[in-house]
């Protein structure tokens, strides 16, 4: 029984698992496009060539062959794109959503689900606000263009890279849809 005190302390020595869902898809859509009267699912299937183009534009690998995308409209007028994505934190996926304008500017970003024990400071409004207005032409260097958060470096880097990749995805695969055609 000499190990009993150590076993009794084990729950206090292991960090609590922090698995939080902050937004459903519908809630994130409403938060990012509050005046939209319709948000239409428009999933995008990417060819190998398109995935290569996205990587060339963003310097970030497009892992998914299909990207969940919705077209936001207000009274039939195109407002922009709502795109859901996931990136790896330290060990777990971070699920987030980005709103992009028809011109390719970030309108907003929401962290939908965060499963890591540490690093959820990426949910802070001031950190997410750094992305507002950014385009594929903007700087995305962590620690210079985008503020890093101590203790959340991997989350910061991977969310930053994810946003940069989604801007490239819009440029490669969604521009035809903005003119009313279906995505490529």
How would you describe what is shown here?
The protein has 184 residues and is α+β, with helices and mostly antiparallel strands. The protein has one domain (20-174). It contains five helices and eight strands, in the order H-E-H-E-E-H-E-E-E-E-E-H-H. The strands form two sheets. A six-stranded antiparallel sheet has the order 1-8-7-6-5-2, sandwiched between helices. A two-stranded antiparallel ribbon has the order 3-4. The mean pLDDT is 88. This is FMN-binding domain protein.
Features:
32% helix, 184 residues, 6-stranded antiparallel sheet, two-stranded antiparallel sheet, alpha+beta
Brief synopsis:
The protein is of the alpha+beta class. The protein has helices spanning 4-13, 25-32, 48-58, 125-128, 153-178; strands at 20-21, 38-41, 44-45, 66-67, 69-74, 77-88, 93-100, 106-114. The protein has one domain (20-174).
Mean pLDDT: 88
Q: What's the total count of β strands?
A: 8
How many H/I helices? 5
- Specify the helix fraction band: 25-40%
* Structural class by sheet pairing and helices: alpha+beta
What's the structural blueprint in terms of helices and strands?
Blueprint: H1 4-13, E1 20-21, H2 25-32, E2 38-41, E3 44-45, H3 48-58, E4 66-67, E5 69-74, E6 77-88, E7 93-100, E8 106-114, H4 125-128, H5 153-178
Antiparallel strand pairs: 1-8, 2-5, 3-4, 5-6, 6-7, 7-8
